[in-house]
Amino acid sequence: MNSLALAALLALGAHAADGTLTPLTPAPERLLLRTSKGDMVFALYPDVAPKHVAQVLALAKAGVFDSVYFERVLPGFIAQTCRAQNRTLPLYPDQLKLIKPLPPEFNKTLPHRRGMLSMNRHPDKPDSAESSFFIVLGDQPGLNGRYTTFGELERGEDVLRAIERDPRKPGPGALPPLEIEHALALDPTALKAVRSRPPAAAAPLAATAAGRPPLWTAAALVVMCLFGSAAFLIRNHASTRTLGALGLLSTLTGAFALYALWVPSAKGHPWGSVAIFAATLGLFKLMNRFEASR
Amino acid sequence: MTEHRHDGLYFVNAWIDFMLIGGVSLFGYAIITALGPGPREAWATSLGGMLVWVVNWPHFSATNFRLYRSRPNVAQFPLTAIALPLVILGAVAASLVWQDAFAPYFVKLYAVWSPYHFSGQTLGLSLLYARRAGLTVDPKERLVLSTFVFGTFAWMIARLESGAQMFVYHGVRYPSLGVPEWVATLMGAAVWVAGGLIVVRVVLGALKKRRTYPPIVLLAPAAQLLWFVAARAYPNYTEFVPFFHALQYLLVAWALQLKERMDETDARPAPEFVAVESARWLAANIAGGAMLFYVFPRLAAACGYPLAMTTGIVLAAVQIHHFFVDGVIWKLRDTRLASPVHVRFSELWGESRAEAAAR
After folding, report:
1. CA–CA distance from A224 to each of A257, B8, B77 (Å)?
2. What is the CATH number of domain A3-201?
3. How many angstroms separate the CA of residue B97 from the nearest CA in chain A?
């Protein structure tokens, strides 16, 4: 096989199997996994595991993977999701109906190497795969022929690295496990239209804690200044009702900025939470007087 | 409560007012609790999904219709009508730009504000029917009633916010506050104390004055107790709470719209007037609701953002705007509103007072 043909096969998604190269055609739809670390896009291979691909696409379309979390992240090995039944949000009955046991579709075409998508199952029951899957984080030949691979990371290696660096083992004071916020089955056109979320450098709270207020706080301060200036400029022409309403808009903007800054750090500070809770109710009461006569 | 008079208590009649203000909530609760607690079922989401088109969404549109339908209305509330939408539009843009740092708190603001807004309507309806019944509510009674109504809201929110869980509204996830559990306990106690005081007041009033207060005066607060407290274990019921709230709203907004339209056009009371104006108003609000809740999120998604996320952000924006507009246009103390909110359906239909009384 000359180098040109080899390049062509690789472009089509060719993969080594028993020393030969088999051209693979990915499904037209890609699987997009959106996490707080960013987006990952996977190509799925129905030629290799048709039933697995069909079920995963159906589950993604029905929103079954939304709020599924990574229950096991073992650097260099796998990042494994929980069963959909254990996800954070409860499943609707029609979503539950879509989850069916899958027969094994073990293959040698897609070996367990970094970036591969593989279906989790009960170790003693080959046909027990349903909705839990894992992303392979390193070469794992020991898993070949035991678990069904059905897809491969196409975009988002930096996100996968970020997930691997943040394994989040459960325990006192630990962060909650990383979740898949949304899983979408998208054709290439739709995929292009989706503005991908860049990998998060740090959580909002971490950015604040590092002493760098987020950019939007500057925007909020500008808006507050604008309302204050407007109230000053029109003070001789406007009614007290209008001036009062401008004051309330400024208050709302400032209160919202404080809200967004404090809520992430409120947990673990019960009195802080109580203060935010009470202040929120007060804010609503205040806004009820917006543009009111008296 | 001081009693004055008792004519024209209902907008339409006892049955229709009773059903729309709280009867549907009560009967719905009875049916769903008879079915037993359990996860939200497909029939509830399907039925709820259909009702939003004809009740929930139009109720938001009705608010905008009322504010924006005439230049004098816009001129009367320029900040609410013009400046506020721009501010909220800015918040939508900020939510799309800072999806992790801004959007969750914008949506959270809406999610906490929404039941507060429900409570405002509940209190307003209670006071409105008290006024229509000729009852004067003194400040202490108002305080007790407010404590009960807003207490149910605060109780529910404190319970929801006491965990460490994440919530999802369409495509936007937002965190809980992590409020200590004793806050919910305290709010619950306040609700029961206030509820007890209301019952004592009603019973004492009945014994001293030998008459019962019209149940519809306290029907909306009773319904809210079901929505926010009693139905906690029945997600098939809570699915319909926004529908119940919207039903109440549409009754009052519809009656007011007809009355104001009649005054503006000098139309004579007639069934044809009621039918034509009602159909026109409802059609406009169904279309307006679809625009706000169906088209706007899709327009935002067309800019390249996931539809689930734009739906969450845009719906939060539309509803926050609604909370402001409602607060502005439904002030019972406003003298321009005092007369229309006493409208009776018979005045619009052309029925004589004697016929109405006989009915």
Report:
1. 10, 47, 20
2. 2.40.100.10
3. 9
